[in-house]
Amino acid sequence: MGQGADGAGQGPHSGRDHCGRTGRRALGRIRAGHAAWPGAEQDSGHGAQLPHPGRGQQIRRRPVAPCPPARRPVALGPALPRLEAGLSTAAAKGPARQLLLLGAGHAHVQVLAQMAQAPWTGAQITLIAPYDRQLYSGMVPGFVAGHYALDDCVIPLQPLVQRSGIRWLQRSVSALDAQAQTVQLDDGSVLHYDWLSINTGPVQNRALIEQSLPGAREHALFIRPIEAFGALWPQVVQMGQSRALRIAVVGAGAAGMELAMAMRHCLPGAAITLLCGDVPLGAGYNAGVQAKLRAALLKRKITLLPDSAAGLRSGEILLASGASLACDVPVLTVGAQAPAWLQPSGLALDAQGFVAVDACQRSTSHAQVFAAGDVSSRVDRTLARSGVYAVRAGPALATNLAATLAGQLLLEHQPPQHTLNLISCGDHFAIASWGEHSAQGRWVWWLKDWIDRRFLARYRL
Predict the structure, then answer these.
(1) Could you tell me what percentage of the chain is helix, strand and coil, using 3-state DSSP and rounding each to the nearest 5?
(2) Domain 21-49+205-336+422-450 is classified in which CATH homologous superfamily?
């Protein structure tokens, strides 16, 4: 989380002023609906990071066995026909083995698109994903602001699945045993795999968050599963049409800042507070971006409160300083963890519990397991846990899965050092960050809108 001084406009609402009965009943319905969504305790959706696909990653051939020094760069496109030919040959040698795809994140959507163009025949492939569409996280702030309808922000999975010819189980994962090579689903069924690819994204573990933030489970509006948040946000908007809401966004990362400004655009009469904690606002971005973010938040009358949430009660947030903040809708953007089923899985994990992978997006402990996106952690270099890298890893993951099934060489995926990050500011205005460079303006928002719409159009069949 970031830190900031109190801003102009609406100040923090201290004291213990509880919300009215109508607000409590309406927010209670929102929370009840949130808890009813699949994966509310352990979702397999994607985080609310903001991906923007781009070009420039380097790909190098790597063997399936432990990798020797990398060889010459190659393009992904020319490699795929050769891999697909290898898959057809492998299929003729005996019964198809099992490839499981866990989750339908940004990388797996690109894998499905590759299969839809030329179905793979070297294995029986099963997608395990609970939702019938992927809500593209890059457009969620625009949806919250009112620029997009929810249907504008989704990639339907059914057309991709039908075109690719694979099996699809609309279930969530409850357990993984890497030694036995089995996955247990939430209905108790157990599937064996020969190869496994994980692209489920981080989760907001209610039980863990409740330990550090008592009352969150009952009173907070979580942003994950992102599909549940997308379905419940219109109820908040409806509440805001009849009364001036007091909204507090807990967590001042990129997602928290974007959502706070989006909520301001959607609900101009609301009092919106961003709890920033004790870390610089926009930490991780260069000084120019940090200054632009602070100015954008203050211009939109977002109150920046340099305090942290210590607990939640009906109508208020208890602060670490001992004070309290009156609040009708506490929106929780912090607490992204790895899925709980990874911890006992036997896979090598990083210190935060995410799957440790090499430059080929392959598990460092189990060569038949791959992972990409926020659920993975590269051991050879430090990458931000962002949808930007999930999008960039998609083509390499597709090629490496096809290569593994065909017994061919893997490709090393080396994304560029700097990536383009576009941060929307609620209205038709955005901030761009590229390494040590920054820019802002309406043109940045239109660029972001064009990139996001182009990405969705590419995978809508």
Answers:
(1) 35, 25, 40
(2) FAD/NAD(P)-binding domain (3.50.50.60)
